[in-house]
Records
---
Amino acid sequence: MTCLPQSRKTGVRVTAALALALSSWLHTAGAASDPESAATPKTSVSVSLPTEPLLVQINQVALERRGPKRAVVEYAGKAGEGGYTVLRDGKPIKRGELRPLQPFTEWTPGKRYFDVDFSEVQEPGKYQVEVRIGEQRALSSPVPVRDDAVFATTGAQLLAYFKRSRHTDETDRKLRIFQTSRKVDVWGGWQDAGGDKGKYLSHLGYANHFNPQQASMAAWVLAYGAHARKDLFAAHGLQAQVEDEAFWGADYLHRILDAEGYFYTTVFDQWGTPGVERMVTGYEGAAGTFTTLYRSAFRAGGGMAIAALARASMLAEQTGRHGVFDGARYLADAERAYAHLRRFNPQYCADGKENIIDDYTALMALVELHNATGQSRYLDDARERAANLIARQQADGGFVSDGGRRPYYHAAEAGLPVISLAAYLDIEPEQGRRQRVLDAIASALKYELAITNAVANPYGYARQRFQLAQDGKAAGDVLEGFFIPHRNETGYWWQGESARLASLSAAMVIGGRKLAGHGAAGYGLPVDQAAYAQSQLDWTLGRNPYGISMLYGFGKKNPPTVLESAGEMFVGGISNGITGAPGSDTGAGISFAPGPDSEQWRWVEQWIPHTTWMLFAAMAMTTGETTSEAR
């Protein structure tokens, strides 16, 4: 999985059939239209920043016809006059002078940066940006411009990624629970990552503030999309496909719900280490030490599992379809699991205390339970959770994780606090409460814009506030930076942040649309919000200093295949992405796949939350409602 440590890659198995299914380092979107397209995989790679004196970096996958469209120009040559030409289908349609950006030296000293904004161009077609500075010339990758761009271009393969990731090994029909003789049926679900056949609702519970929502988040996004956005999926011929995958996820959640009322957090075998028993267990640290922390708290995937099952029950009622289990079973599971966690949740938290992740995941569970049942008790509890979440917000709009001063930052779901508040708005009828939530959303979005724009930032990369870890706990000064700090409470987990970026993009769109006064800069947002939302997706889709589209099978250049540590590469999967430089406690500098190969999982490995959040963001950026109003 994404946290696969260097010492635990021995379980990755390579077969001839697998090798044939893998694509090459230079992989074009056209070649990737066939998921089985292949070339001989590379097994040793090191990726450095491009050294060309003039580069034009652009989203390589798709840009919205009525949304922001921007290229970033990097120049390492001598000063000189510069200009650009925008080409549509090979023909020039716009010319202008390059606009210099603020000096920026943190990643590559000696470079200057320029901006090419062609947002006002709204004709569909294939676009490129040609740039000239002095004697230097450069041409961007091509990018299609169309309506509902990212969803229409990638939606089918994003969905297919989940089916390719299904786990169907019959061994999981009867696995032991750690430190017991009990055996349970945990068959189904999805493998977590390219190099990891484990299955996770979450992990990193021992670190308390890092739990990512994994399989349960995927199950919710799929069920939500199939139900609330059925017209969108149907318009692209994907409705049956998304329903199938949503029910596959709901069936797995039913199987991992214990009779006592808690979900099993992980199915784990130390990343395929030979001789290690696969079982239901918790685990800790880079060594993958088994623990008894296998009962999922709200923050360890339990909250989103409840939300997913409740939404799947609505989908079953709407369509008359279901998986192995029916809609009534899904809803009964959701209600039973919530009743259990409402009583026992702190006992399942490593430190015995709830934090912000419990608040926003429980809030999502309650919103969906209310949507599915209409029962006022779920609205009452949702009000309490929303109040808890808002109480964690600081004056500038940022959140704290706990009852103290530890800043909230998250490598996978930094946008989920705002998304949960936006979802809660859809069930809250009282105007006073609604206004408090709207104020909180406005403050949170203002904070994200402010911290991102507080320094020179040519790519508009979402920055974050954090503390470094001391003796396993966050302490000391509150710092700011681009990437996740390497010295954090997990002890080792500082991989790339593709999921985080898509979650923030979705939060900006969904939260921004909830606020009064819609803009016309794209996605129904004001200029600054639309630009922020676009920049986060653009980074993952190729507009970054490496010129790499992390979405495999789309764009001019994709991450390399590194079987030793990152395993399989599926079309529609998204790699972890770019990080701060190794060796930097604060995550300063920049790095992508520098090696050795045993560590390349940090950058190259595909992880299920990345595709989950990209699909959700792509849905959010299309026309129509994007929150939980459909019920």
---
Amino acid sequence: MSLPKLLTGAVLAGSCILPALAQLAPADSAAADEAFAELRDAARRGDSVKAETLAARLQQYALPSYVDYYRLKARMPAVTPDEVRAFLARHQGTAIADRMRNDWLLELGRVRDWVNFDQQYPLFVLDDDLQVKCYALMSRLARQETVAEEARLLLTNPPGYGDACNGLMAALAQAGQFSADDLLVQLRLAGETASTGPARRAAELLGVTDTRAAQAVDFPALAMARGIGTTRAEHEVYLVAISRMARSSLPLALVAFEKNLPLLSPQEQAIGWAVLAHAASIKLEPEAYLYWQRSAGAPLSHEQMQWKTRIALRKLDWKTVRDTIEAMPASLRRQPVWVYWLARALQTDPATAPEVVPAMYRSIADQTHFYGQLALEELGQLITIPPPGPAVTAAEQAAIAANPALQRALKFFSLRMRLEGLREWNWETRKFSERELLAAAELARRHDILDRMVYTSERTRTQFDYTQRFPSPHNEILTPTTEELGLDKAWVYGLIRQESRFIMDARSSAGAGGLMQVMPGTARDVARRIGLDFVKEKLTDLRTNLLLGSNYLNMVLQSAGGSQPLASAAYNAGPGRMRTWRRKLEQPMEGAIFAESIPFLETRVYVKNVMANATNYAALFENKPQSLKARLGTISSSTAPPSDLP
């Protein structure tokens, strides 16, 4: 029964619901589910009157802790500390209690209630909110603690700063713990990430008008026309404008920069060359390598360090690769990508001690991702599937199925409330043993929530079930299609695993849908080419989606000359971009270097994951060792005419 039918004769007046809704008692009724969804929406809007009315009529609902939570969240700014503490006590140890503590900490930080904040922050289990972390440093700063070094490590992502991190930046400057150099770093980061608010804040603290900083980020041509200024801070704002202009027109930025080059200090000149090098790098322009050489002495952001390394890789300049990685902060240098490439660089130096490089490869070779597989091959081994451990018993499955948090997660998934379902599932499984993880993955399989099955099974380290980690559902549909097209089924499954994690109704922000995340326009064009009647509503139909996705994948594979890395890039970013990246090649390039230097972050991650997935699927399907390096191959430039692929 739908909610509108249940409310026959009732009216919604303003934000108040009249008593006809009082019949919503059954915990499993469709009407109760619909009312619960309305309660969540009311809480998000801050409609406390409607939330209170709905919550009062859902007292027997299957998710009582969330009914309780949404009732309070709807009026969070007015909730008293006693009310929140009572909620936390009632639901202690649950995901929603930690979520409530997160919400409350943000509110306590906003009003600068450091007494309650300091009491609650140590109890925040996940501690995964950047703004809460910034408020925590502000609280310590208010107690006159020195927190500058921790703040420098934290303040690296201006788009996520909000009130908390912008406030922390100002407080550090006012307390004398952030110098002008620190603020200039923040200004450069804000420019690099097109973050107008943090740019304004940093500029104000440096004595430059916030209007000038905003123009540098949003209207760089106007900012450049105003001139370079006279102070160091004004020079840096000008360089932000150069950085922003270089993203849209590198030649114009270069002309403006060189015009004022004599007016800049040697370090400012190096910073200017670094921002031009960064822009040239993400366009894969040949000048990038020269610009990075000219940037010597510039303080580089994390992103700039990584792009300098990628361009050096493309030039096979192993000394620069080594020097740049070794200059990275430890947190960045420890990432598997840079462990692998540093080992490769050290391998070219005869002075490297013989035991160093193998030890570096071994430190990541037990991981099934792209660089773990490449490291394993450097150690002389191929990729294989580890033998499965003992099967999950009926008793283990029964115990997991009875887990209240997982039951809540399953309820949320049934309501298509994925965010809440993920929160409950991930919260509970983080404390599971390996046997419990395998049993939980099996529970997810039984309920056809394959993304949680993959996520959960991937967390085991000594017992494995690769049918959970690398599932192959709908094989009876996909196999005939791949065989007819001559496609590598392992690669197709590797791509689906990355695209949708086997969520059939997955839909991207761009409108792509289904297991293979096909765009409506692409689906229409492919359907026309293969003679299939198609309407947009069929995009998530299982057979239609797999048929259209596989045919499109085959088309881009042909346009990529049979290269799976190139075709994977084209499937994600479009054939036109793939052809552009291929034309930028000055000489044949190792597939791993090509993948690492793809300009788009999303596509770079995508291609590496698809290729690693495909290697694991091939080992699983063929039951024999596989080589990721062979699958990646060598990427060559192409003079092929433009394709008419969408």
---
Amino acid sequence: MCGISGLFDTQGQRDFDHALASRINNIQAHRGPDEDDLHFEPGLALGHRRLSVIDLATGQQPLFNQDGSVGIVFNGEIYNFQELVPELRALGHVFRTRSDTEVIVKAWEAWGPACVHRLRGMFAFALWDRRQQTLFLARDRMGVKPMHYAWLPDGTFIFGSELKVVTAHPAFAREIDPLAVEDYFALGYVPDPRCIYRNAFKLPAAHTLTLRRGDAKPAQPVPYWDVRFTNDSRMSQADTEAELRERIRESVRLRLISDVPLGAFLSGGVDSSAVVATMAGLSEKPVQTCAIGFDDPRFNESAYAQQVADRYHTDHRLEIVKSEDFDLIDTLARLYDEPYADSSAIPTYRVCEMARKHVTVALSGDGGDESLGGYRRYRMHLGEERVRSRLPHGVRRPVFGALGQVYPKADWAPRMFRAKTTFQAMAMNSVQAYHHSMSHLRTDQRLRLFSSSFQRSLGGYHSIEVFHHHARQAQTDDPLALIQYLDYKTWLVGDINTKVDRASMAHSLEVREPLMDHQLIEWLATLPSDLKIHDGQGKYVFKKAFEPLLPNDILYRPKMGFSVPLASWLRGPLAQRMRDSVLSPRMLASGYFNAQTLQTLVEQHLGGHHDHSTPLWMLIMFDAFLRQAEQRPTS
């Protein structure tokens, strides 16, 4: 796991300043504290920060082939690299290292851009082919590893693992994109390919970008893979359960390759427990497991994690986090580089901090909910879909639309009793309703929050366009498959993977996600949806498959999630910080917000009349971003 960076002259061969290239590379030193190196040639600078995990002696980067014509900077892991080596040797390629990095170089020489189809893993890399005067960038299929880039006014192309690499260049103009602000206050993050700044981009998951020196037009990302939900498997349930266990076993086995200490996160939930149970069956030594507990019992799952640890005799470590662990606001703003509002980033940061004391690599259970139907919102959406399918839109829209307008807002109530939200969703089509469900602030709330001048700057843009774009590519009519696909393209990449990547790399910890293996996901997409959600039970076949390996109260207890007590924080110890942040001169002068709405949100929440913790946290994190953006990052 590493940090990569680079500069490429798209039109000529000017020399890049060595000090500048070194500075922007070292801004992400936390991603790779073990080694760093730079490569320069006319019109090109490549930078690398290394976290040594595989081939500690000879895996340094930038790495070149024997004649120096093809070089690479690479972040991630290729789990099938050992399988590719004999095939490439048979084609005449000679290896000087034992690293997966060199396998990518040889794969490029053998197969060119099609090499990405042969790679199984998490990766973001930039490969330079001098003979073809081509810079080739690629990102893994599920977007586990990040890649940011921009074109500077003088024709220079700049890229890096984190956005701070791009923004550190003195020629980059930090002009905030209004559309990204709309996306953020809808979804809680800025979805790919957009960044918070107008002229910066994220390379989308499962895409490549090919730049050839002298091309007149900027290159555009090209997709190389997509998941297709066929839901057409005819396997029996018993065979499906056995196959699922075996496929997860294979995925976990591939992710156990490491030359440094390796362990796992163990939250006590179904996904991480299944991963640990599988690891225990593959390891002769006790698995090292790490868990975070909270001193607030409403958020504490540590007893369940201990059950799994005891059953599999893991080397288990637990740390208790105080419920008032909110001193990370500015730290998170620095890590994420753009507004990011998932408050579970706080415990994620803490569990990564703790794990790094004992291991360099940790396996997680991320991705299981999206692939196997684990979220409660999936079950609720399917219930709404049954009603939508029985009533024409021409009937639903006026009836439920009117009910949604007059019914009182009840954010304090459990989701199933928030009839206003349900009525609003029932008046919409499937994609609109799912966007409504996934929005931190719904359309009417954003309209009240934003100033009239800012609304005009959006030019009619609405964040629903992100979902519509992906829905057009989904190629499925299955209601569950459609929203799983939307989550793969938005929530999983923009929220979950972003959260884990930045939180783990802040501590130079590599996290591997066996439940996001693309071959596993392709197979899961063939399963009928009623094996994922059955009689109101989410992850149905997954839980059945792991009944022999995990206790029932792990498999069938209500999902708790990795949450923090935001509402009480913002009425108690964070109250003054919240008021100072939301009503700061910086926020009021930004031009984005209706000042009266900001005041109302603060006063109503502090008065206990409404729970506005979600919009207030989003505003706090936006203010923290603005404060960070006022300063140029330094190494």
